[in-house]
Amino acid sequence: xxxxxxxxxxxxxxxxxxxxxxxxxxxxxxxxxxxxxxxxxxxxxxxxxxxxxxxxxxxxxxxxxxxxxxxxxxxxxxxxxxxxxxxxxxxxxxxxxxxxxxxxxxxxxxxxxxxxxxxxxxxxxxxxxxx
Length: 131
Prior knowledge:
Distance between the termini: 83 Å
Number of helices: 6
Largest sheet: none
Strand content: under 5%
Helix content: 55-70%
Radius of gyration: 21 Å
Shape: flat
C-alpha cells in the first residue's frame, strides 16, 4: 500500500487556489499567501469585515447559522467542521487570490457593458421624443 500518494495532505499550509495556481507567478503566490489569514477564527473575522459585520448574510453564504458565525469569529471552544472549513477557505481565497480578483474584474466589466447595451436598447419611457 502506497501511503505517499500525491493526493495526500500537504505539509505546507500555504493557501492554493486550484483554479489559478498554475498560472500565477511566484510573486503573486507569495502575495496571496501573505494576505491569507492564518486560522479559522482569523478567516471568519476577515470575512465578517468584508461582509460589513452582517452575520446573517455571511451565514447564508457559508451555509451555516448566524450563531455559528458569531461563535467561530469569537473563537468558540469547538473548531468549525470540515464542510464549514472548506467553505471558509474557498470564500477567503476568492477574496485574496490575484487570479480570482482578475476574473471578478473582467466579469464586472462585461456585466457593465451588457447593462449599458440593454439600457441603450430600452425605449425612453415618459420622455417626449419630439423635444
